Amino acid sequence: MTIRIRTVAALSGAALLAAGLTTLAPAATAAPTAPASATAVHAVSATPHRVLFDNSKAETAGNADWIISTSQPDPLAQNPNPTTEKSWTGALSAWGVALQKTGQYSLKTLPSGSTITYGSGGALDLANFDTFVIPEPNIRLSASEKTAVMKFVQNGGGLFLVSDHINSDRNNDGWDSPKIINDLLTSNGVNNNDPFGFSVDLLNITTDNPRAVNDATDPVLNGSFGTVTGSILRNGTTFTLKPADNPSVKGLVYRTGYSGNTGAFFVTSTFGSGRVAVWGDSSPIDDGTGQSGNTLFNGWDDPAGTDAALALNATAWLSKA
Q1: Rounded to an integer, what is the distance from CA 163 to the centroid of its chain?
Q2: What is the tens place of the pLDDT at every residue in 26-42?
Q3: Tell me, which fold does domain 47-318 have in CATH?
Q4: Where are the chain's structural domains?
Q5: What are 239-278's pLDDT values in tens digits?
C-alpha cells in the first residue's frame, strides 16, 4: 500500500466556468434561419460538455477510490443537486461536483466490467462524449480499447490520463498505470510511434511540490477555474517529452529542479483534432472522501498546490469549453 503524506486545507474557491457549449456530434444539415425567439430557445437546450470517467480498469482496486460517485453510470441518481464532495461518494467526487455545479457539464461513469468503445452506438460509447478521463488505470486496455481511445482523440475528443508511480499495481495483475499508459502509446493500432510526444517515466518519487511554468497565455494554467501555481507529488512519477515526435507537447508543471524535456509532472498535447492531458500522480485528484474502508487523503485542497484549478481548467480545455 502506498504511503502518502498530505496536508488537509479548507476548500479553495473556484470561479464558475464561463458559458460555451461544444459537442463531438457530426455537423447537421443547414436549416432555414430561425426567428430570434426560436434561436434563443435552442441555445438554452444545447448539449453541455459531456465527460465520461472510466471505472472499467480497476480504478477502485486496493486503497484507490477514483470515482466521482458510486451511482454509475449516472451520479445524479445518487444526488441530483450536489453541493459538496460529500454529496457523491468517491474520492473524485469534488472534481465531479465542481463540474456539475457550473451547469455546463454532463457527467457519466463507465462502470466496472464495461468495455471502452468508439462508434458502437452504445449509450456510453466515446462518440457520445467530449472528454474521457482515465484516472490511474490498473487493468491493461485491450487492443480494441486502445484503438477506440486513439480514434476518439484523433477525431476531436479530449483524453485526460492520470498515472501513478512504478509498482503501483493495486490489483496484482502485473500491470500498473505507468506501464498501461506507455502500452497505450506504443501499441494502439492507430499510431504506435509516440503519438502524443511523451512517455511515462518508470519512477517512484516520494514527495515534491512541482511548480507551474510561467505562461500567462496557457488556458490550463490560467483558466476560468483559477490560476495554477503548482501541484503536489506524493509517490508519483514524471514524463519525458519528445517534441521531435509531436511538437505540440508541452510541459506545464515540473518537478523541482527540472525543466524542458525532463521531469514534467503535468503535460498537454494534441493528436489529430483532439487534445490530451496527463498527470503524474493520483494524489492531487484525491479529495479525501470516498467509500468506507479506503485510506484516503485530501490532495485536492492541499495548500502546497492548486490541484483543483489544474484538474478543472484541464477538463474545460480538453472539452473545448
Answers
A1: 10
A2: 333 333 333 333 323 32
A3: Rossmann fold (3.40.50)
A4: 47-318
A5: 999 999 999 999 999 999 999 999 999 999 999 999 999 9
